[in-house]
Every structure is written in structure tokens, then in C-alpha cells.
Amino acid sequence: MGEVIVITSGKGGVGKTTTTANLGTGFALLGKKVALVDADIGLRNLDVVMGLENRIVYDLVDVTEGNCRLKQALIRDKRFENLYLLPAAQTRDKTAVSPEQMKELCRDLAQDFDYVLIDCPAGIEQGFKNAIAGADRAVIVTTPEVSAVRDADRIIGLLESEGKSNPKLIVNRIRPKMVKKGDMMDIDDIIEILAVDLLGIIPEDEYIVISTNKGEPAVANPASLAGTAYKNIVRRLMGENVPLMNLEADEGFFGRFKKILGF
Amino acid sequence: MFDLINKMFGKEGTGSKDIAKERLRLVLVHDRVNVSPQFMEVLKEDMIKVISNYMEINERDMEINLTHTNTQVALVANIPVNRMKRGTIAGE
Prior knowledge:
Number of helices of chain A: 12
Largest sheet of chain A: 8 strands, mixed
Helix content of chain B: 40-55%
CATH superfamily of chain A: P-loop containing nucleotide triphosphate hydrolases
Distance between the termini of chain A: 53 Å
CATH topology of chain A: Rossmann fold
Strand content of chain B: 15-25%
Number of helices of chain B: 3
Number of domains of chain A: 1
Oligomer: heterodimer
Radius of gyration of chain B: 24 Å
CATH architecture of chain A: 3-Layer(aba) Sandwich
Radius of gyration of chain A: 18 Å
Order of helices and strands of chain A: EHEHHHEEHEHEHEHHEHHH
Number of strands of chain B: 4
Structural class of chain B: alpha+beta
Number of strands of chain A: 8
Order of helices and strands of chain B: HHHEEEE
Largest interface: A-B, 20 and 19 residues
């Protein structure tokens, strides 16, 4: 039996879909068999982030309504062995699926895959409830902003009341320079406020924009800082003990100068 | 000296993260107060247990609520007392 992990956040635009795509690709790169499920029915995006939008025939709702078999709806990613996508329906809404159907779907997928990653829609309504229904564990994505951390706190509470305790946190889009200046909350601040375990940190990285433009997950590019951070998270999810990335490494000429002078 | 160099290079931050933390703390105090009715019921029963050691109270008319103001959350209890119990407090 594989493991079902939901990627959620409450707030929109913090990087759930990017995280799902990169973690999934990261697992596949390490030889795991992975299914990505886009649970954002009506606003599907994981397909374009993965660069698989032209290959959709059936979707999640087709599977739950019995219009096709699960295997027919799964799109195989030709670039990465053992990576599959189950796209969301675009012309339906969140009520087209029930939590029970999602549970069943996750159970079925977990029979065949090592990891099943569910990209949760923003919000705390039906779509959220569907997305978390079949998950064994939850990963929460936030950014170092008041609004995103507040929503993450709400999500942690809701997950707990649904019996999904001990979610893990990813803090996305950290800008080390701003943290250093005291103009951005740092990891310790956020962890202290939310009282959850940290799974990883992702630095702000322009390459994410480029990779989304191209539909090629950043984790496949060794030169991308965010990609490397995602790779680390994948290994942590597999039980490895990987130290947090040192974000101060990129401190520029002046920083190196200060270090030499012994400040 | 170091501060001076930082200022010269325009590196002095406004330290706005402390403002963010404080605002977040307050907002979460309010958000987290939305506790379940069961939670309040258990709290009420525990309070009755403790207070009953000292006085007889009117459990039926007893009210406890969490109230919000802009800066804090308070537990407000209105507990009618029927009579004090003798020998439990003064003079012991």
C-alpha cells in the first residue's frame, strides 16, 4: 500500500500546485511510482504546471462517475518514468465529487502507487473536505506573510478536527535578504506561532516562473535553488534525515567581504 | 560601526517582521477562540466541580462565555451563588 499525501494551505497562491508538481516529480526521480491528483475541480492547474495539458482525455469526475476506468484517466508523464497525473474536471464544480468517492479513489490509487499526492484547492469548503478525505498525512504550504500563516493555522485546526493530526509545514518563497533585515518573518517565528513540525523551506527562486512557463518542474533542474529544496523535502518525506538548506550562502560580494573582515 | 556601514549601503531594515508577528498573534488569538460547544460544556462542568467546594451555586442559571475585544479575549462567567459553604475558607 502506498501513502496518500494531501498538499494544502487554505490561502490561494502560496504554491500548492507548484509544490505538488515538484514533490511528485522528485519522488519519480528517486524511482518511486507516483500519482498526482488535481482535486481543484473547476480550476484545474496541475496539468499546465506539469506541462501535460494537451494530453487530457478523461478526468477525476469521469472516474468517480464511472465514465472510464481509473487507468484510462491517468496520464503518464513521458519524461519521468513512473509519474502519472489524474487531472481535475474543468467544466464541473467541487460538488461533483463526495468525500466518500475521494476516499475510494485514494484507496484504489494507493494499491498501485508508492505515493499519491493530492493538490488541494484553496479554501475550506467542499473542495478542501474532498481533497483531505482520503489522505494519510497532510503537508501545509505557507509563505512568510501574515495572511498565509493565519490561513495555515485555520487549516491545521480543521485537519485536526477531521482526525488528520500532525501535519508538516513547508514555508515557501523565503527571501533571505529580507529575513536578515528583519523585514520578513523567519522560520523560527512561523514554527513558534503555528506549533507544527517543519518539513522544509523553499527560497524565492525566479526559476520557478521559468519552469512554470515551460511546464517543466524545477526539481529536475539541479541549478535551481528551489528545485534542490524540493528534492530535500522529498527525501525527508521518504524518512531520510536531510539538514535544512543554508539560505545565507547567497550573500553576494558585500557579504563575503564582511565575512573576510571577520564581522 | 557595523550599523553605520549598513546604513551607508541602505541595508537598514524597518524590522517590520515584529509588527507582522504581533498582528498575527492577535489575529490568531481571536481565530482560535472559536471553540466547540462541547469544549465549553466540559469547562463548565470542571468549574462547577471546583467552585462547589466553596459555595453552593445555581448551576441552571450559570453562564460562561468567551468575549472578544480588539486586543484580548476574556472568559466571562456569571455564576449565581446560593450560599457559602461553612468551614471551607475563613479562619482555617
